[in-house]
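Subject: complex prediction, re-run

Hi both,

The earlier run crashed halfway through, so I resubmitted it with identical inputs.
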Amino acid sequence: MAETKSRSKRLMTTGGIIFLVLGIILYFAKEPMGLNRKIYDLPIFLIIIGLCSAIKGYMAKDKTEEEAALAGKTFTEFLTNNAILLAMLVLVVVICILQPRFMQIRVALDILTQSSTKLIMALGICFALLIAGTDLSAGRMVGLAAVISASMMQTATYANRFFPDLPQVAVWIPIVAAVLACMVCGALNGFLVAKYEMHPFIATLATQVMIYGACSLYFDMPPNNSQPIGGIRPDFAQIGQLRLFNGLWKGFPGISILIPISIVICIAIWFILNKTVFGKNVYAIGGNREAAVVAGINVFRNIMFIFILASFLYGIAGVLEAARTAGATNNYGNGYETDAIAACVVGGVSMSGGIGKVGGIVMGVLIFTVIQYGLQFINVSPMWQQVIKGVIIAVAVAIDLTKYRRK
Amino acid sequence: MRKVFITALILVLAIASCSFADGVKIGAGIYRFNDAFMLRFRNAMSAESEKAGAEIDIADGRDDQPTQDAQIDEFIAGGVNVLIVNLVDRMAAQGTIDKAKSADIPVVFINREPPLEVLNTYVKAYYVGAKAEESGIFSGQLIVDYFKSHPEADKNHDGKLQFVLLKGQNGHQDMILRSKYSVETIRDAGIEPVELASAIANWDKLEAMKIMNAFIMSIGPENIEAVIANNDEMALGAVEALKAQDYNKGDPSMYIPVVGVDANASALEAMDKGEMLGTVLNDADGQGSAAVKLAVSLAQGKDVSGEVTDGKYIWVPYQKVTRGEKQ
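This time it finished cleanly. Structure:
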């Protein structure tokens, strides 16, 4: 038994060092061997993976014998529990062989950029999932925030302005307006769920339809008449398009501003969920609502706060989408909630409430984005992409439920 | 006294209803309201109706054929004299024609062309639009002109043109013909076109941006010599994706010509900034007013054989637009 307990640790450390050495050798060998166009930035990835693995292996605590025994017995369980992650790794290897360009720092950064707004959405929706609910209005709130913010952020010279006489207002005003509009919708969600004990599915379905209708009415106001909003001011577009350290060294594309924004939000949500009374209450309500009531938790206030906080995040995501694409239509955000829910589920958030961690959600979003991005990268037909996406969701929920039953 | 009053009232009502019936009532179905091109079309139709003194009711099909079918039924039940229909699904034309036929009112299709054999099943069915192949030819010509006047555009100096294609909704006749003729025009001009990749982006900016981004990453921007998009929104999506990689921002060594179709306001602005090479104006105003004029004549029972070609069509020509030639 003593052997098993250190075996995994040793495996990680030695494996990491092998990767690291291989990476360094390849890094210096790729120029003279003419591998530049065949392996791209693979050496750097190997070095990073190797370093992480080695450090993690070295730092890992020795498992107790019991745990080690459990780990050995449940190897197949490990496989099923991480089926999606393993599928992703296989896919990444296949894509790298089919299209070596995938092994670029540029691509990795791009995947992180695309994950950013999805992560913000998923962090918002996880609150609804944690209380065993859901939020169908999330995507439409993104559209609402995108349209409201973009409509006030057009250049003075643009031919089809939404508000022809609007002066060039400060950038923060439309952002606050857009996020506030979303928070009003979130408050409505919370009120319906908390006051009438409506199932969140129905409550948010109702608000989803209302929001889309209201957003379309706003979008259809003359003189815009449902025309896609364009001519976005560069200072607003920067919020989604700015790249930090651009050109730090030759060919470095820079880090999208979206990545630090989502990291900050991620840390804030982690703090709220783990270090505040409100966070504990969310888990308590999700675990057992009646018990939470008996324990004296103000369920009404907490549920209101959950939906308002979530809608705040959707609002931010919507503003960022409008800025990133320098435009908006009322169709923005359509279906984002399903992607966000799916990412949460893949990341181990239980649909029956009370279980879910921020780290898991980050993993879920990354896995989901890598798979989607990878399929697009090797030009898989969008119809097949849909099929594969559906399979992933079904498998993830199936695994979630079997795990639950085992306990 | 009372009798006189009632008679007068009936008379007034009769006259009022009579003058209503005199005016032309048009029922128009648009496939989706939030489409920049169809918006211009709608505005042109409203303006022309007002000019002609006709009443027009325009419905939003919300990109869903059953929704539009229900709206057509409502129009017919509401007693319109003529229908103008921008089909959601052009293969669903037969259903619309059958409805019009059973109510014996003329129908003018716009923007999405029904197959000829379907149009031929009803004498009072017409189509007003632009010849999609013409827009394809023009966008091909824009690329050819650029290629011939800028030798550096052939980045790998192989004499061929490596391009990516962003296509509209699957099955739409504009998507099929624009894709086909733009490429054929390049070939006819003596440059061999090489399609590096193509994808359906459903006329949508966000989708096109995502797809173009994947193309840039997987093919490499240095290998792409042109981007051909079936409409301006997709071309603008491609431009945003290129700008995110510092392309098309003014540095001539980092430029990929992008062409679209429609000439909408955002595209004209992008062209002014030098982010987009050119576009083809699909004359929405001309088509919108032509459709309403035809509809009014048909509703009034006038002979339209002089105005239409082949007994079914009114073709409104396209126009090429490049930088500095704002219309």
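The first helix of chain A runs from residue 2 to 29.

- K.
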